[in-house]
Specification:
single chain; alpha+beta; TIM Barrel; Jelly Rolls; 4 domains; 8-stranded parallel barrel; 15 helices; binds beta-D-galactopyranose
């Protein structure tokens, strides 16, 4: 089914395809309860996907997987520095083809929330600001400053104009239903005093003045002016109150995971807690909720913000960095969304729900209309009456049984039960009924460290003859260098055209200095007050040391010879600051005093010495990573004798793509730090810096409030070892991989691998809820809802293009253990394996009723039975090969 949608989307979306609208034109407004689409209140689930964090060829599949999850809206920021890299020169191509992205969303029947910013934060380089913005005379960002306001308004106008021209607003039949101006300005507003307050009013007025025809939000902005909705961004937003009763409760960023920093551990938010937070939000009157992120993706090139954010922006999202479903996360949320959808008629018909105290830490919220409707055995009295309820247990430790409308309900700790008809539970946030999927790369990561005994199929590894190397010159390499007295700020020179800037000066060492060192035993040292983000110091072409940090001090012993010495310091950015006030003043490079210590004459201040400046790397500016520019330098077929210490070295080799259509990753675990390109496209910065050994719990308890320090994993391993190469960037063979290695690493250890679902597991028991599709969907007008009497089912599926190739375990009875460690208990139906095999083998998906009838016997009367299954997935093409 999804293939059809995807093919349809690919075939129909071109920049000029919009002769007709995606929807019948509709207007969008809001009241104190919800967004109104064509006058009808809606409960909306939204999914954050940032278009430039995926190759455009991935967009149709991402949108299809999002839609399939029961989401209504896609949310994205607009990335100013991607769209206007040079002032007045716009880029709406490739990964920045925002029009194509919005059209894809519309074609799939989803709505769009466009967060224009144009400050976006987002762990994106410079928070989305183009670096040229710093050079506008008199500019101060994000405050009541004329030059800034002119630029901001110009860009907002440009985007709104483009969207109107392409007919993408709802009233034109397009998908855009909501906009955003600024981003979390409330967090830093106080730093700007009166200017901040004025700026908020101006930004709102300016936005509303664009006549975009759909509502605007400002997130984390409790002084948002009238007609702009202030919204919540947090891990939990139940209980959030906007600054006026006329405004609905919106959650623009539900942080379902978190980002990673180089050298840090990886975040993980348990899905049971995430589902709890979402259910609580809708329970307590929320009406729009967005997952930040639903698909996080990749910071290709030098787009990652920082400093020090990783190339992967996976975010532990329901769709992983490579575009595969993360299970059971994706499935559990799908079930939640289905349950919420069943409640929508009741939710939208009530302004304020009834509150029922069920226990000390237990409560219910009931949405019913008309209020005097009564529940009887046969449903509700009165036609068109609706009733949906949420039963919450906020106790972090204990399950409880509560009485609600005459029935007893069992509530696990830290959970919400959703009752679309006020009688039957459709879903409980702590009961995960969807399958777990284990993917090839997961098997190598610490999360599944028990399973490393595994060989990859179609993995490409390297033979040494295929590699070539080129040594990047240390210091000056082009006539475009210049010399000045004094130390200049890094970004003022590079304009961010490269991460790297060389600062080069000469130091004269006299005979007396040498004698002084011999007599006193003193070693000369170089000190710099503060540097960011990374500096490496070379003396006479040899690496003397380095420093890393956010305005970190440098103090290094250096070896100097008699006479002239060349001191070459390369300063490097690792993603420009994306958060905080006064970003225009932030800068990079060397700050404060720069001193040479230990000379005969005492301290030599280098601050006012003549310094030569050289922007960037030779290889970078000659684009030696491009297929066409291979001849521009002399590549050597002899690798350095010890690659592990060979700094500032370029490597290249070619490879064939792994067979099939699975996503592709490059394992750079054997390398040090640098940047990588495939077929001329940058796959980002890489660094094998290792996360601390401690601080990862052995067990992640979903119960209790989450924050980004809870449930960390990947301790003692490189923060990022695998790097995504979109399939669409690859050809069958002769793909060119080029690396720039800063500190040394072994290119022979690099491998190319496929990423695909390999093993799936699920358990369902007789006492579980019936599948959600058994609920008949409510009629939005009459609100009628009903459920067919069926038992629970176990449902498993492989990725698109795969089939279930074998059943590894199946037991209907009381199986023990969990995925990959299942074992039979003392109750086991003898036909378990054959029933499951017959239903599933060779298929992409199968559904099995969890009942005695299905398994032909009751293996242990009086006991609640469970079906546990573990199966292997294989790509359909591999299976054909295997059988040939
Ligand atoms: C929010 C911000 C987002 C993103 C997020 C963390 O405060 O609005 O853009 O930076 O934090 O991932």
């Amino acid at each position: 089914m999804r293939l059809k949608i995807v093919l349809f989307l690919i075939a129909f979306v071109s920049r000029s395809s919009l002769a007709i609208g995606f929807f019948k034109p509709f207007n969008v407004s809001y009241d104190g309860r919800a967004l109104l689409l064509d006058g009808q209140r809606r409960i909306l689930i939204s999914a954050g996907i940032h278009y430039p964090r995926a190759a455009p060829e991935m967009w149709p599949d991402l949108v299809a997987k999002t839609k399939e999850n029961g989401v209504d809206v896609v949310q994205s920021y607009v990335f100013w520095n991607g769209h206007e890299p040079v002032r007045g020169q716009y880029n709406f191509e490739g990964q920045f083809d925002i029009v194509k992205f919005v059209k894809l969303v519309g074609l799939s029947g989803l709505y769009l929330h466009l967060r224009i910013g144009p400050y976006v934060c987002a762990e994106w380089n410079f928070g989305g600001f183009p670096v040229w913005l710093r050079d506008i005379p008199g500019i101060k960002f994000r405050t009541d400053n004329g030059p800034f306001k002119v630029e901001m308004e110009r860009f907002v106008k440009k985007i709104i104009g483009l969207m109107k021209q392409e007919m993408l607003f709802s009233w034109q039949g397009g998908p855009i239903i909501l906009l955003q101006i600024e981003n979390e300005y409330g967090n830093i507003e106080d730093s700007y005093g009166k200017g901040g307050k004025e700026y908020v009013k101006w930004a709102a007025r300016m936005a509303l003045g664009q006549d975009a025809g759909v509502p605007w939000v400002m997130c984390r902005q409790n002084d948002a002016p009238e007609n702009v909705i202030d919204t919540c961004n947090a891990y939990y937003c139940d209980g959030y109150k906007p600054n006026s009763k006329e405004k609905p409760i919106f959650w623009t960023e539900d942080w379902d995971g978190w980002y990673a920093s180089w050298g840090g551990r990886l975040p993980h938010r348990p899905v049971r807690d995430l589902a709890f937070a979402v259910a609580r939000f809708f329970e307590r009157g929320g009406s729009f909720q967005n997952y930040y992120m639903f698909f996080g993706g990749t910071n290709f090139g030098r787009t990652s913000g920082g400093p020090f954010y990783t190339t992967s922006y996976d975010y532990d999202a329901p769709i992983d960095e490579y575009g595969l479903l993360r299970q059971p996360r994706w499935g559990h949320l799908k079930n939640l969304h289905e349950a919420l959808r069943l409640c929508e008629p009741a939710l939208v018909s009530v302004d304020v729900p009834d509150y029922v105290l069920l226990g000390i830490k237990q409560e219910a919220h009931v949405y019913r209309e008309p209020v005097d409707n009564k529940i009887t055995d046969s449903g509700f009295l009165g036609n068109g009456s609706v009733c949906s309820a949420f039963l919450a247990n906020m106790d972090e430790r204990h399950s409880v049984s509560v009485k609600f409308l005459g029935q007893t309900f069992h509530l696990p700790p830290w959970s919400v039960s959703i009752l679309p008809d006020c009688k039957n539970v459709a879903f409980n946030t702590a009961k995960v009924q969807s399958q777990t999927s284990l993917k090839l790369l997961d098997r190598l990561s610490s999360r599944f460290s028990t399973m490393t005994n595994f060989s990859f199929k179609s993995t490409v590894s390297w033979i040494s003859e295929s590699w070539q190397a080129f040594h990047e010159p240390i210091g000056v390499w082009s006539p475009e260098n210049f010399t000045m007295h004094g130390v200049l700020e890094h970004l003022n020179i590079t304009k961010d055209s490269s991460d790297y800037l060389w600062y080069i000066t000469r130091i004269y060492i006299s005979d007396e200095d040498i004698l002084h060192w011999k007599v006193t035993g003193v070693r000369p040292s170089l000190t710099i007050d503060r540097v960011r983000d990374v500096v490496r110091v070379f003396v006479n072409g040899n690496l003397a040391g380095n420093a890393t940090g956010h305005w970190a001090p440098v103090n290094l012993h250096i070896d100097l010879k008699q006479g002239e010495n060349e001191l070459a310091i390369v300063s490097q950015t690792m993603g420009l600051q994306n958060y905080g006030a006064f970003l225009e003043k932030d800068g990079a490079g060397l700050r404060g005093q720069i001193n040479l210590k230990g000379l005969k004459g005492g301290v030599q201040n280098l601050l006012n010495s003549p310094w030569t400046y050289q922007v960037g790397l030779k290889g970078e500016f000659l684009k030696i990573y491009d297929l066409e520019s291979q001849g521009s330098v002399n590549w050597s077929s002899t690798l350095p004798p010890d690659t592990s210490t060979a700094s500032f070295t370029w490597y290249k080799a070619t490879f064939s793509a792994p067979d099939g259509a699975d996503p592709v990753a490059i394992d750079l675990g054997s390398m040090g730090k640098g940047q990588a390109w495939v077929n001329g496209k940058s796959i980002g910065r890489y660094w094998t810096i290792v996360a601390p050994k401690h601080g990862c719990p052995s067990h992640c308890d979903y119960r209790g409030a989450y924050n980004e320090r809870k449930c960390l994993w990947n301790c003692g391993r490189p923060t990022q070892r695998w790097y995504h190469v979109p399939r669409s960037w690859l050809q069958e063979s002769s793909n060119l991989l080029v690396l720039f290695e800063e500190i040394g690493g072994n290119p022979l250890g690099i491998s190319i691998m496929r990423h695909a679902t390999d093993t799936i597991c699920a358990t369902t028991s007789e006492s579980d809820y019936p599948p959600l599709h058994m609920w008949q969907h409510p009629d939005i007008v009459s609100g009628d809802i009903s459920i067919t009497e069926v038992g629970p089912e176990l449902d498993i599926f492989c990725d698109y293009g795969q089939i279930i190739s074998s059943i590894e375990f199946a037991s209907y009875g009381n199986p023990q253990g969990s995925c990959q460690q299942f074992s039979e208990g003392n109750c086991h139906a003898s036909k378990s394996f054959s029933v499951v095999s017959e239903a599933c083998r060779g298929k992409n998906r199968c559904t099995i009723s969890v009942s005695n009838e299905k398994f032909g016997e009751d293996p242990c009367p009086g006991v609640v039975k469970t079906l546990a299954v573990e199966a292997k997935c294989m790509s359909a093409s591999d299976v054909n090969i295997a059988y040939m």
